[in-house]
Automatic annotation (TrEMBL):
<dbReference type="InterPro" id="IPR000760">
    <property type="entry name" value="Inositol_monophosphatase-like"/>
</dbReference>
<protein>
    <recommendedName>
        <fullName>3'(2'),5'-bisphosphate nucleotidase</fullName>
        <ecNumber>3.1.3.7</ecNumber>
    </recommendedName>
</protein>
<dbReference type="GO" id="GO:0004441">
    <property type="term" value="F:inositol-1,4-bisphosphate 1-phosphatase activity"/>
</dbReference>
<feature type="binding site">
    <location>
        <position position="123"/>
    </location>
    <ligand>
        <name>Mg(2+)</name>
    </ligand>
</feature>
<keyword id="KW-0511">Multifunctional enzyme</keyword>
<feature type="binding site">
    <location>
        <position position="189"/>
    </location>
    <ligand>
        <name>Mg(2+)</name>
    </ligand>
</feature>
<keyword id="KW-0479">Metal-binding</keyword>
<dbReference type="GO" id="GO:0046872">
    <property type="term" value="F:metal ion binding"/>
</dbReference>
<keyword id="KW-0460">Magnesium</keyword>
<dbReference type="GO" id="GO:0000103">
    <property type="term" value="P:sulfate assimilation"/>
</dbReference>
<dbReference type="GO" id="GO:0008441">
    <property type="term" value="F:3'(2'),5'-bisphosphate nucleotidase activity"/>
</dbReference>
<dbReference type="InterPro" id="IPR051090">
    <property type="entry name" value="Inositol_monoP_superfamily"/>
</dbReference>
<dbReference type="InterPro" id="IPR020550">
    <property type="entry name" value="Inositol_monophosphatase_CS"/>
</dbReference>
<dbReference type="InterPro" id="IPR020583">
    <property type="entry name" value="Inositol_monoP_metal-BS"/>
</dbReference>
<dbReference type="InterPro" id="IPR006239">
    <property type="entry name" value="DPNP"/>
</dbReference>
<feature type="binding site">
    <location>
        <position position="188"/>
    </location>
    <ligand>
        <name>Mg(2+)</name>
    </ligand>
</feature>
<comment type="pathway">
    <text>Signal transduction; phosphatidylinositol signaling pathway.</text>
</comment>
Amino acid sequence: MGTATLWWRVRGISVGVGSELRLSEARIRKRGISVSTRSSCCSSPLTLIVSSMPYEKELAAAKKAATLAARLCQKVQKALLQSDVHSKSDKSPVTVADYGSQALVSFILERELPSEPFSIVAEEDSGDLRKESGQETLKRITELVNDTLASEGSDSFPSLTTEDVLAAIDNGKSEGGSVGQHWVLDPIDGTKGFVRGDQYAIALGLLHEGKVVLGVLACPNLPASIGSNQQHSSNEVGCLFFAKVGDGTYMQALGGSTQTRVHVCDIDNPEQASLFESFEAAHSSHDLSSSIAKKLGVKAPPVRIDSQAKYGALSRGDGAIYLRFPHKGYREKIWDHAAGSIVVTEAGGIVTDAAGNPLDFSKGKFLDVDSGIIVTNQKLMPSLLRAVKEALNEKASSL
Ligand SMILES: Nc1ncnc2c1ncn2[C@@H]1O[C@H](COP(=O)(O)OS(=O)(=O)O)[C@@H](OP(=O)(O)O)[C@H]1O
Ligand SMILES: [Mg+2]
Ligand SMILES: [Mg+2]
Ligand SMILES: [Mg+2]
């Protein structure tokens, strides 16, 4: 048997030498992944094993992107100027950090995964920044993005122009859907919390054929422990949660490298449960949560925090239940739940709508949910669903 050299090109999977392949050149296509091999001696039997380690490269890129975006957000939140906060057409707030974070994540993903099909469904767009009145803001965002890239200590990042920043933001215009791969990005989830100086998250998920296969949540203000029942007892603030389908959920300090596998709490007695809900009463009915909590016999007062930090906290067992009941007419967006939902489900939890249906991320930007979203562990879900049903029926009959 002559000597053989094997060249390979891999996207998202690892390739090793193993089973028999008598080809001087071969192309394998598997789930959109291409691998090509070439033997320097065409008569040499080459052995090739393709073992799937899906989304490894994507996860590394997503963690890098979310961590850098979190750095930009931290810088802005520390010294937030009035001129940094603007109002969108739906009257919700948006800041230079929302735009900067979206531009950075888009730029890093495209750079780190150059051979991947590139589609992002993201919250922000560049419309207001392209107007005359948006020029100063655009300059400030561009400076923030360049400063953050420069602070990476790498000369390899080019300085971005205002046009580059607009283009990176507008990469987020994809509509998503059930075909192919789409990144799902909320550059700052919980902008109201961010402006208040409270919790927020950079939330980045990946959809494959309409299913969430990967999620990263950077929570710059979330302590390593928030009244937790697990061993995260440090004073450190800032967490990165990440999960890949079938691979569990992990947490590490933002910017750190030691990762810990996390699990949802395993209590089965609702009286011992503590419950998360939105900080803003306008985003979720506190009355309805309170009525559900009463039916379950929950004793602790609700913990109100902004953003998908709620999903992160739940994934490490800090609380047992997350209830979200937007007021009538509001349509949930996929970027408010994609990353958070896989972080919780890979930690052993369940995320459904108020009727117990799984969330369907394959329908474009919106999630069609029945009344609300509920999250808990496997043991509590049956009693939670019963309590939710009763509370919703009572509410309907009182109208
Ligand atoms: N009216 C209404 N009802 C329900 N939800 C709404 C509503 N308006 C906005 N949003 C979305 O809520 C996102 C923040 O959710 P939170 O759970 O973090 O709310 S809260 O900040 O704790 O109050 C928030 O995310 P960001 O815009 O990314 O901050 C919005 O997508
Ligand atoms: Mg959001
Ligand atoms: Mg947002
Ligand atoms: Mg918003």
